[in-house]
Amino acid sequence: LDLPQIAVVGGQSAGKSSVLENFVGRDFLPRGSGIVTRRPLILQLVNSKAEYAEFLHCKGRKFVDFEEVRMEIEAETDRLTGSNKGISPIPINLRVYSPNVLNLTLIDLPGMTKVAVGDQPPDIEHQIRDMLLQFITKESCLILAVTPANTDLANSDALKIAKEVDPQGLRTIGVITKLDLMDEGTDAKDILENKLLPLRRGYIGVVNRSQKDIDGKKDITAAMAAERKFFLSHPAYRHMADRMGTSHLQRTLNQQLTNHIRDTLPGLRSKLQSQLLSLEKEVEEYKNFRPDDPTRKTKALLQMVQQFGVDFEKCIEGSGDQVDTNELSGGARINRIFHERFPFELVKIVFDEKELRREISHAIKNVHGVRTGLFTPDLAFEVIVKKQIVKLKTPCLKCIDLVIQELINTVRQCTNKLNSYPRLREETERIVTTHIREREGKTKDQILLLIDIELSYINTNHEDFIGFANAQQRNIASNKKRAMPNQGEILVIRKGWLTLHLSIMKGGSKEYWFVLTAESLSWYKDEEEKEKKYMLPLDNLKLRDVEKGFMSSKHVFAIFNTEQRNVYKDLRQIELACDTQEDVDSWKASFLRAGVYPEKDQHENEDTMSSGDTVSMDPQLERQVETIRNLVDSYIGIVNKSIRDLMPKTIMHLMINNTKDFIHSELLAYLYSAGDQGSLMEESAEQAQRRDEMLRMYHALKEALVIIGDISTTTVSTPVPPPVDDTWIVKDSSPPPASRPPTATTAPPIRPPAVRGPTPGPPPPLNLSPAFGAPPVPSRPGPPSAYAGDANPAMPLIPSRPARVPPALPPGIPSRRPPAAPNRPTIIRPSEPSLLD
């Protein structure tokens, strides 16, 4: 939380640290010439009966001797920055308790400098600037801009940087130091009256001790008395002495900080309340916490095991609460394995046309032996069918392995909530994973048993089996069907976005909306499907895996024509890309439904081709091969359908449901027998630390809200001053021209200048030193300018005002033309007290 505070900014040796010492009434800050403050000092002043200081880095140690405080600041600064002139943005925190202070939080920052000295880095100016901006850019930080009176205010680095971060001037307070060091005959009256170079919150003048006073150990109380005497006795400042000096500055800052705190309270309160609400639920279980209470341990163990069981079941069965929208998990991934991955693996193994026909041909010849057969042999059909059924074992076992992996991942995901008790988490994970591995063996045995059952009896009397007569006619019928034009509505199998990979010459990779039907693959510009880019018929198409590119994050597969024809334009294959491997598998499964199958490995194809040359092309054998091919196709379709149906049921029954029952009924008993309950429920060190921190934070937030409630009810705030024209800060630092043409009407000079509104940067009167920007009087008029606070425009240097009663012009008042230089000394400041007195 960014709490309200006051940052003191200014050039080197502007007197920033002296102002802070005057607040405390003690010498405690490092002193000297050049850069002395080299780390931010966060100074918290607390009104208290006793007087002592505390550092955050020396907790528990009270410093009563303020000379020791100075030495500690110097030592702590050197520890980080070295003994030369380096700087560091890491702050030193100092809290001073004293009856002589008002409650304030101030930050003493390093003075702005231009030139690197000692072992300072060359970019010291930018480093200091960045450090100041870290603090003063926060909206909750008031800026105390300190400028010495013996330099030109228009060149003030402090006001310039304050203007950058606070253009409205709502947070900036001006402080003018070294008023006693101004040239004789000059003063800063117009600045302190906020007339010359106005700020919204105005300026306060202070007089610090000189180096001679410090060396002579002049007491700060005596110095403040001398400061009071200076303001009361100085003719330029005596009328506003009650608004000058360190004590007034301290009161003003206290009031301004109070106002600022009051303004930031609503935002602060809402932040605290939101933090408190977020902690409330977690803290509830810790409020009455006793780490070694056995009843608590037993209760926690029961609750956690029960919660683990509920979470596991929700992950598998799915639930409405805490749904992961980023990726599939648990049951959804298992479902994808059952209904997309497993069917895809089945089809990939079974459908290899050339190899199947070659095997059927060899089987028929081997059954007939030396004789030439007249009829299609049953035995050849049975041998081929059994060989195909045995091939189902591999995808079935692979499916079980995939499901087990998902189950173990789900268990790990659910045990994340047991992180507070590492031993319990470890044991739970071990017991449940061991049980899943035990069930793996039984499930695999059962699946292999199902396949053995299928092998034991080939049921050619199945209602879905086409039979011998139909098998012979099937090829003719399918050919006729293919030749007939498509009638009725085409079944859409899948729609979705895919990236079409083309070379840069052909337009590069681009995303299209793809529509896959039973007949074709089409792609469109977008999902409205109005602008069709291409339609690709599915005849003779196959799928091929493509390795992911070195720089590509997408997963790629390809479609090609088995007859070596171009697929799209002059391309033999088109590459399609998805964001994840799961999407690729899903699209492949959809292509399988459309009749587009994956290719076999290249070397296997070559073997097939070479052995295919030896197959006899006898027409009778071809007919027999075709008949058995159709019969095998029909029967394997029945077996596949049966296995696809029974696999998920077997895995669910023997593995997933069994594991759920085990977690609910037996896990607790295994945990009790695994070891001592006390050691199981030992908290992790991180958990204990987190609990302590959370409780501390909770109580701190509650206390903070109580304090904020008190502040808002007991604090009296003052309104923010009206805005002034402070555009002078961002202008070029050279002062404006000294003389202006007078207005049409003139007024008696007896009207005190204090009633004027703030000006947008008029040049100073004669009695200011050249350091405050009084240039030689030019001989031609400058541009006219109006007072910001006056309804009628009035020129800054002419002591005349618009007349309310027509008096005679006193001598020395210039005519409508600009005054010549010799007339200049006749402009005398009125001696009457101003209205501000």
TrEMBL record:
<feature type="domain" description="Dynamin-type G">
    <location>
        <begin position="1"/>
        <end position="266"/>
    </location>
</feature>
<dbReference type="GO" id="GO:0014069">
    <property type="term" value="C:postsynaptic density"/>
</dbReference>
<feature type="compositionally biased region" description="Pro residues">
    <location>
        <begin position="804"/>
        <end position="822"/>
    </location>
</feature>
<dbReference type="InterPro" id="IPR020850">
    <property type="entry name" value="GED_dom"/>
</dbReference>
<keyword id="KW-0254">Endocytosis</keyword>
<dbReference type="GO" id="GO:0098793">
    <property type="term" value="C:presynapse"/>
</dbReference>
<dbReference type="GO" id="GO:0003924">
    <property type="term" value="F:GTPase activity"/>
</dbReference>
<dbReference type="InterPro" id="IPR030381">
    <property type="entry name" value="G_DYNAMIN_dom"/>
</dbReference>
<keyword id="KW-0493">Microtubule</keyword>
<keyword id="KW-0966">Cell projection</keyword>
<dbReference type="Pfam" id="PF00350">
    <property type="entry name" value="Dynamin_N"/>
</dbReference>
<keyword id="KW-0472">Membrane</keyword>
<feature type="domain" description="GED">
    <location>
        <begin position="625"/>
        <end position="716"/>
    </location>
</feature>
<keyword id="KW-0342">GTP-binding</keyword>
<keyword id="KW-0770">Synapse</keyword>
<dbReference type="GO" id="GO:0001891">
    <property type="term" value="C:phagocytic cup"/>
</dbReference>
<keyword id="KW-0505">Motor protein</keyword>
<dbReference type="InterPro" id="IPR003130">
    <property type="entry name" value="GED"/>
</dbReference>
<dbReference type="GO" id="GO:0001931">
    <property type="term" value="C:uropod"/>
</dbReference>
<dbReference type="GO" id="GO:0006909">
    <property type="term" value="P:phagocytosis"/>
</dbReference>
<protein>
    <recommendedName>
        <fullName>Dynamin-2</fullName>
        <ecNumber>3.6.5.5</ecNumber>
    </recommendedName>
</protein>
<dbReference type="GO" id="GO:0002102">
    <property type="term" value="C:podosome"/>
</dbReference>
<keyword id="KW-0597">Phosphoprotein</keyword>
<dbReference type="InterPro" id="IPR019762">
    <property type="entry name" value="Dynamin_GTPase_CS"/>
</dbReference>
<dbReference type="GO" id="GO:0005814">
    <property type="term" value="C:centriole"/>
</dbReference>
<dbReference type="GO" id="GO:0008017">
    <property type="term" value="F:microtubule binding"/>
</dbReference>
<dbReference type="InterPro" id="IPR022812">
    <property type="entry name" value="Dynamin"/>
</dbReference>
<feature type="compositionally biased region" description="Low complexity">
    <location>
        <begin position="741"/>
        <end position="758"/>
    </location>
</feature>
<dbReference type="InterPro" id="IPR001401">
    <property type="entry name" value="Dynamin_GTPase"/>
</dbReference>
<dbReference type="GO" id="GO:0016185">
    <property type="term" value="P:synaptic vesicle budding from presynaptic endocytic zone membrane"/>
</dbReference>
<dbReference type="GO" id="GO:0030670">
    <property type="term" value="C:phagocytic vesicle membrane"/>
</dbReference>
<keyword id="KW-0168">Coated pit</keyword>
<dbReference type="GO" id="GO:0005874">
    <property type="term" value="C:microtubule"/>
</dbReference>
<keyword id="KW-0547">Nucleotide-binding</keyword>
<feature type="compositionally biased region" description="Pro residues">
    <location>
        <begin position="759"/>
        <end position="784"/>
    </location>
</feature>
<keyword id="KW-0771">Synaptosome</keyword>
<dbReference type="GO" id="GO:0031623">
    <property type="term" value="P:receptor internalization"/>
</dbReference>
<keyword id="KW-0206">Cytoskeleton</keyword>
<feature type="domain" description="PH">
    <location>
        <begin position="491"/>
        <end position="596"/>
    </location>
</feature>
<dbReference type="Pfam" id="PF01031">
    <property type="entry name" value="Dynamin_M"/>
</dbReference>
<keyword id="KW-0378">Hydrolase</keyword>
<keyword id="KW-0968">Cytoplasmic vesicle</keyword>
